[in-house]
Amino acid sequence: MQKRNLSFTQLFNLSFGFFGVQIAYALQSANISRIFATLGADPHTLSFFWILPPLMGMIVQPLVGKYSDKTWTRLGRRKPYLLVGALIAVAVMLLLPNAGDFTFAQSAFLGLNAAMWFGLFSLMFLDTSINIAMQPFKMMVGDMVNEEQKGTAYAIQSALCNAGSVVGYLFPIFFTWIGIANTAPEGVIPDSVKWSFYAGAAILILCSLYTFATVKELNPEEYAEFHGIDANAKKDAKAEEKGFIQLLKEAPSAFWTVGLVQFFCWAAFMYMWTYSNGTIAVNCFGWDGVNAADAAFQDAGGWVGVVFCVQAVGSLIWAAFLPKLEHWFGNKGAYAISLVVGAIGFISIWFVTNQYVLWISYALIGAAWAAMLALPFTIVTNAIKGGNMGYYLGLFNCTICVPQIVAALCGRSLLIYICAHVQAGMLVVAGVFLLCGAAAVFAIKEKEE
């Protein structure tokens, strides 16, 4: 069977909702450390707050993959999950930045005050809902796009991902620029952050509704024909009954070798998200490292959005250059070079004391991010056969979540014993992780026997 091509508009519509989801994810990535530090978290425990997002992703995404593989409704196969996730995310985005405004009893439990516990549970629900909304976009590409167009489809998704990141990262400093307060009383989240989350919530639901309305998913018969499942109906029906352990045993080697690279990459970026605010506040804004309500810390929080935006732009530029690297050095060579460039960016932050020079460092980090977005899913989806695409992609998401959980658990010890309480040292550690990832690239097996 010759698999039909989709028009550019169809490919774009398939992923447009990802733009809104990524705005929500960018707001979370750039502001969670700032929010919890403002609520009273100690820098040495900041990484622990980052355990919940990947933990929820590791639980939710395989389940979304498993159950959406078996969901066939008039509304679609993946789209119902997209819509439910988006609606929950919007509700939580309206609540999370107000954690410091609600009247709570002042007692503390396990060292966290009530506002921090409220923020923690809100973060848990936010990341759960983002994961529910995000995964269907990746799965619909696997469901509806042929092998020849898959690279283009994921490139569009990558571009929308970076564009959403730029918008989400710049929201706090934009709202500060138009006159909304960037500081607040101790323990209260500034209005610039609140309005960023409100605007992100509005865009998220509009973009998700657009994809929901414009995409028509394949019905069971069309899906079976498109993926050649009819000829092996009994075999594929039996495959559907396999548990995740059996599927992992049968996973192609690309699943595991790419996963090894993912481990180092996502651990590195976990430390960027966690420690950029404190590092920039101390190195470039003269923060004393104590009072998170201080203007220096909050101004640095706005600048974190700017440098993360520079990283996203750098990623877009590098993504345009990536095909040439692949032509010259092959996929693995391009992957490794990108990670080395990112490692240089991370390590250079240690030496930077000027906020504008940071643009160079974070632009270099964007090279690693571009490779992380473009290559892993293309390699893995091309290696996966049969009727378990969604389940496998959900399981593959564990190669993103597990390293973040491990990194978060180790963050406090590394900060104390390796980095001597200096948050900038954690970004050097991130650079070393990317170098390890670059070495691990050469273990990837793209073609199966």
Description of the molecule:
The protein has one domain: MFS general substrate transporter like domains (Growth Hormone, Chain: A, Up-down Bundle), CATH 1.20.1250. Helix 1 (8-39) runs antiparallel to helix 5 (114-144), helix 3 runs antiparallel to helix 15 (389-396) and helix 6 (147-177) runs antiparallel to helix 12 (295-348). The chain has helices spanning 8-39, 46-49, 52-69, 79-95, 114-144, 147-177, 191-214, 220-226, 233-240, 244-249, 253-285, 295-348, 358-374, 376-383, 389-396, 398-418, 424-440, and strands at residues 108-109, 112-113. The model has no long low-confidence stretch (mean pLDDT 84). The protein is 75% helix and 1% strand. With 449 residues, the protein is mostly helical. The two termini are 23 Å apart.
Quick structural summary:
With about 450 residues, the protein is mainly α. About 75% of the residues lie in helices and about 0% in strands.
